[in-house]
Amino acid sequence: MNRRSFLIACSLLLVPTALFAKDKKEKPPVFVVVQRGEEEFEAVDVKKLKERKKEIAKEYKEAVKEWDKAKKAARKAKEKFEDPKPKAPVFKVVAKGLKGEDAAKAKIEQILEAIRKAKEKKQQKKDKK
User: Fold this and answer.
1) CA-to-CA distance for 43 and 25, rounded, in angstroms?
2) Cα dihedral value 63, 67, 72, 75, nearest 10
3) What are the sequence ranges of the domains in the chain?
4) Is residue 42 scored above 80 in pLDDT?
């Protein structure tokens, strides 16, 4: 291989990297809106969604353990135990593909406003009867 063909081969190897290295702008993180309860919503980064789901499951397990301890203590003391068992967590993705945390928070406000209006409408119907 002579020097000329070597230079041509090297330049061909460098061309694709030079083309793809053009101003890669960092994209804003993509968020989703997650429903955690009846009226509890949270904006979560898509990359951290699985991690957040595991955290919520862990919190629920700890709450159940505390409830079990309290129930056993009440049995030993022969007292009435009326505390309800903690409800399983709701983890439902309500909105996807929101670019930026501000957009996700705006969507949460929009959802909460829709829930509030629906409750008012339901209450008005109930009051008319």
Assistant:
1) 23
2) 180
3) 28-121
4) yes
